[in-house]
Amino acid sequence: MAERTLTGQLGGPVPAGIEALADNEKQDLSDALRDARHRQAKALAEAGEEGLKYVPALLRGAVRKVVGL
Q: What is the DSSP letter of 68?
């Protein structure tokens, strides 16, 4: 199952070096990738909100809509 999850997370076939890992190691890697992506998404959202502080209040709603926040 971890290999399918890794394939989905990587967007393609799993590299040979990763295929050599034990199943529990593949699961650990999959979990680490998922957690890293969640942290990255959170950091990007926070940075976007922080950047909106420099936009005049009347325009923030429109800017949020345009940039997808």
A: T
